[in-house]
Amino acid sequence: QVQLVESGGGLVQAGGSLRLSCAASGRTFSSYVMGWFRQAPGKEREFVATISWSGGRTSYADSVKGRFTISRDNAKNTVYLQMNSLNPEDTAVYYCAASPKSVPFYADYNYWGQGTQVTVSS
């Protein structure tokens, strides 16, 4: 079992930055691929970024590539999402998720946090 708790959301002006954190319980954090997803009002949840067990491999949605950076600290059982150059289209609830699979599809993410709201004003 893995429990995930996100933090760091808030209100920011367009062009600003935020860093989200996701703290995980359990001693097997390093064996999970971690992902960030987001869901805007009236839209489906979408993939944002993912990071491998060791942190050596990352991937991003095209919409955030070059602006967002995912990282992890296995010693602290925490995954981060640094978000720069935010725009109003980034407004959403952001969720972190964990998967035991090395190349997970959406359905392979077994554990989810409760989400943190990010609002970008224009």
Give a written overview of the molecule.
The protein has 122 residues and is mainly β. The protein contains no helices and eleven strands. It has strands at 4-7, 10-13, 18-24, 33-39, 46-51, 58-60, 68-73, 78-83, 92-99, 111-112, 116-121. Strands 2, 4, 5, 6, 9, 10 and 11 form a seven-stranded mixed beta sheet that branches. It has a four-stranded antiparallel beta sheet with strand order 1-3-8-7, with no helix packed on it. A hairpin with a 4-residue loop joins strand 7 (68-73) and strand 8 (78-83). The radius of gyration is 13 Å and the shape is globular. The protein starts with a strand and ends with a strand. The mean pLDDT is 96.
Quick recap of the structure?
Helix content is 0%, strand content 48%.
Output the keywords:
single chain; 122 residues; mainly beta; 7-stranded mixed beta sheet; 48% strand; globular
Present the secondary structure layout:
Blueprint: E1 4-7, E2 10-13, E3 18-24, E4 33-39, E5 46-51, E6 58-60, E7 68-73, E8 78-83, E9 92-99, E10 111-112, E11 116-121
Parallel strand pairs: 2-11
Antiparallel strand pairs: 1-3, 3-8, 4-5, 4-9, 5-6, 7-8, 9-10, 9-11
Radius of gyration: 13 Å
In terms of quaternary structure, the protein is single chain
**End-to-end gap:** 40 Å
Low-confidence stretches: none
> Mean pLDDT, nearest integer?
96
Number of helices: 0
Specify the structural class.
mainly beta
> How would a textbook summarize the main sheet?
7 strands, mixed
> What proportion of the residues form beta strands (DSSP E)?
over 45%
